[in-house]
Amino acid sequence: ASSIYNIPRAPPDRILGLTERFNSDQNPLKVNLTVGIYKDENGQVTTLPSVARAQTVLDQHEELNTDLSYLPISGSADFQSNVLQFLFRESAPQGAQYLDEDRISFIQTLSGTGALAVASKLLSLFVTKTAWVPDPSWANHCNVLQNNGFKDIRPYPYLKNGSLNVEQWLQELQNAPVASSQSNPQCIILHACCHNPSGIDPSSEQWTEILDTIHDLNLIPIIDMAYQGMDTGDLYKDAYLLRMSLDSQRYCWPNGLFLCQSFAKNMGLYGERVGSLSVVTPPDMTLKPNIDSQLKKIVRGFYSSPPGYGSRVANVVLSTSELKTQWFEDVKKMHSRLQSVRTKMAERLNWNCFSEINGQHGMFLYTGLSPSQVGILRENHSVYLNSDGRLSLSGLNSSNIDYVCDCMQKVTD
Ligand code: PLP
Q1: In whole angstroms, what separates CA 221 from the centre of its chain?
Q2: Atom of ligand 1 nearest to the CA of 116
Q3: Strands 163-164, 275-280: parallel, antiparallel or unpaired by DSSP?
Q4: Average pLDDT for 373-402
Q5: Which residues line ligand 1 (CB under 6 A)?
Q6: Torsion over CA of 249, 251, 255 and 259, rounded to 10 degrees?
Q7: Residue nearest to atom 2 of ligand 1 (CA)
Q8: Strand 163-164 with 104-109, pairing
Q9: How confident is the model at residue 68 (pLDDT cuts 50, 70, 90)?
Q10: Could you tell me which residue, 117 or 413, shows the higher pLDDT?
Q11: What's the pLDDT band for 348 if we cut at 50, 70, 90?
Q12: What is the maximal distance between C-alpha atoms in the chain?
C-alpha cells in the first residue's frame, strides 16, 4: 500500500549538512572549509566590484529594474544574446559558426545546477538514460541525473592514487559491456576546468585524446563549466575545453553537445541563480526548433520561468565595456588570492599526499586526507572539510592558515 509513511529519511547533503554542524560548533577557533564560496582575506563574502557597480546602474536606471513581471520561459532575450556572445564568440570563437548557422538552443537557467537538471531531463526523455560521470565528482551530479530520469549512471575512473589516470578512464569507456553508438548514444559529464573535487585537470594533449575517444564512441558531451575564470584567472582562457570541442575540423557531435554554465562563482551571484544551458545541435534545421520547444516545456513544468534580478545584473556587466573590464579584474583578483593560499599551503604541508598541490586548479585543495582523518579534524579541532578530503581554499586567510596547517599535520602524524 502506498502512503505518506513510505517516505524514508534521505541522508543529509554531504556538503550543506556540514555547514549546519559548523554553525552549532562552539569552538572559537572553528574554520569552515566546506562550501565553494569565495571569501576575501577577512573571511567575508563580498560583492564583486563589477557586480556592485552593475547593481548601482540598475538602481539609478529605474526602467531597467522596475519591471518585476515574469521573464519568458527561456529567460530574458538580452541575457540570451549577451551570454551567447560571451560564450560562443569571445570565450570560444569556434562557436561563432554554430551561432551564425543558428544551431545553438539556449535557455537561461537556475545557475549551473538548473542547466544540468534541464539537460538531463531532455536527454532522458528523448535520447539516453545512460550517463558516465567521473569518479570522484561533484556529489550532486548523480543526484541531478537520477532525479531527472537517468537509470544507468556509470562512474569512470578519474584518479588513481591521487593522480589523473586518463588511460584507465578511456579503457573503461571503450570496454563498456553496452557501448554507446550513434543510434543508441550515451552521455558523459566533463568538468570544463577545475575538476571538483580534485582540482586536477587533463592537459590539452590529454583532452585531445579524451575528446577523440568520446567522439569515436558517439558519446554526447555534457560540459559542466562552473568555474570559468577560477582556473587561470582569465575567463576566456579557461574555456579551453569548449574551444577544443567546438573545433568543427575535428568533431561533429552527431547527437549534439551540451554546455551547462554558471555565473555563481565567477560573478559571485551564488544565490541569485544565474546560468545557462546551450545545446549545440547537428546541422539539420529541424532540430533546433524541436529542442527549443522541449526545453521550454520542461522549464514550464519545473519552475515556469527563471528569476529576473541576477540576470539583469549579469546583463549590465556583460554589456557595459567598463564593467566587463572590471569583472575580468575581479576574477583575476579572486584567482590570485586563492593561488597564494594554495602556494602557502604547499609550502607549509610537506607530506606525500600533497605532492600535487601546485598542480591543482581552482577553489579547492584536494588534501588526500581519509574520511577518518577528516572526522578527527572536525571533532577534535573544529576544522571542517568535506569527507572526501576536499578543502575550500577561500576559507583560509592569515588569521587561520597556521592553525589549520598545524591541525592537519597533527592528524597525519
Ligand atoms: N558543477 C560543479 C562541478 C560544481 O562544483 C557546481 C557548484 O558547486 C555546480 C556545477 C553548480 O553550481 P550552481 O548551481 O551554484 O551554479
Answers
A1: 14
A2: 10
A3: unpaired
A4: 94
A5: 36, 111-113, 138, 191, 196, 224, 226, 262, 264, 270, 275
A6: -100
A7: 226
A8: unpaired
A9: confident
A10: 117
A11: confident
A12: 63
